[in-house]
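Re-run with default settings, no changes from the original entry. Doing this only to confirm the output is reproducible before filing.
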Amino acid sequence: MSYLDKLLEDVEVKWKPLGEFADYEQPTDYLVDSKNYDDNFLTPVLTAGKTFILGYTDETDGIYKASENPVIIFDDFTTANKWVDFDFKAKSSAMKMITSKDESKALLKYIYYWLNTLPSDLIDGDHKRQWISNYSRKLIPIPCPENRKKSLEIQQKIVGILDSFTELTAELTAELTARQKQYQFYREQLLRFNEKEVKHLSLGDENIGKFIRGGGLQKKDFTETGVGCIHYGQIYTYYGTYADKTKSFVSEEFAKKARMAKYGDLVIATTSENDEDVCKAVAWLGDEEIAISSDACFYSHNLNPKYVTYFFQTEQFQKQKRPFITGTKVRRVNADDLAKIKIPVPSKEEQERIVSILDKFDILTNSISEGLPKEIELRKKQYEYYRDLLLTFPKDNLEE
């Protein structure tokens, strides 16, 4: 019999309304006043949504001391929630702070892990305050409710197991962040050359390459199979530094009249909703030619394809790009302006050496098949598996 089987063997469970064990507080006394956020300030400003930490404030009054009394922050509209054990200020009154009414009956961390087994049952457009109208009425499994000591012992063991998984994921995430910073540092250093030692030529220089605008490809033109294509929006939502397979396809008939990129060309998004994504590029390393959408262009050149793509990721490139960005809601850089940006052009051997170094960092920090992101995803799935296994009890004893 496994440890889990022994832990849960013959455990009597009763399902009771969550509101019997969890209390809530509005963050009214802890709302931030200033919008002057700065990473050098000490106190994080929280939202229960995906962003979580909006920034840091220098305000010293009205700070919730979660370092002394941890809480679950709960978004009353989306039901998103986070475990918080550090001091903070809140951004919005839409966030509730959940605590345990009695830790001798139900551990707050146990409640938190159980909350995250619940599927979202929200309906689009539902703007109800979810905690009172919905979540406080949900039934939570309480093991051995008649024996508080045993109940807490089981809850503590469940929490301990799940904590070990979340701590491992946090360590891997911290490692990934450190490696990403290291990657960024080396990329900036390796692609920076003294202009007296290495020529810096315009991307549109006739000795290097030229930009070709994409055609009229739209998402409605996609087919299940056929000729590969890249839509501009996929460049910053799907692709990484390089690719040899496309996510989407068009018919052979459509491809005959499309603008086609070949092996080694860079495919570049010339339109985005933000400055960071505009001009994001992916090197096409597939054997077949592919169709390119409008609001994108491709760069045909005689440089190492990955070398050019890595250059597009540097601050050196970004600094030259920014003055050419136009538009308000939609941000654009046209191909003629891209051609004016200068790139350092070392020898072919030096380009290959730089690429070989940066490829290792790229795989480590971005690969979903062999790098840290894959390891983190595997640990998350392992955590979710054991969380659901540990917190899914038979519903024989539902509270009337």
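The chain has three domains: 13-142, 146-193+346-400, 200-345. Residues 249 and 323 are 34 Å apart (CA to CA).
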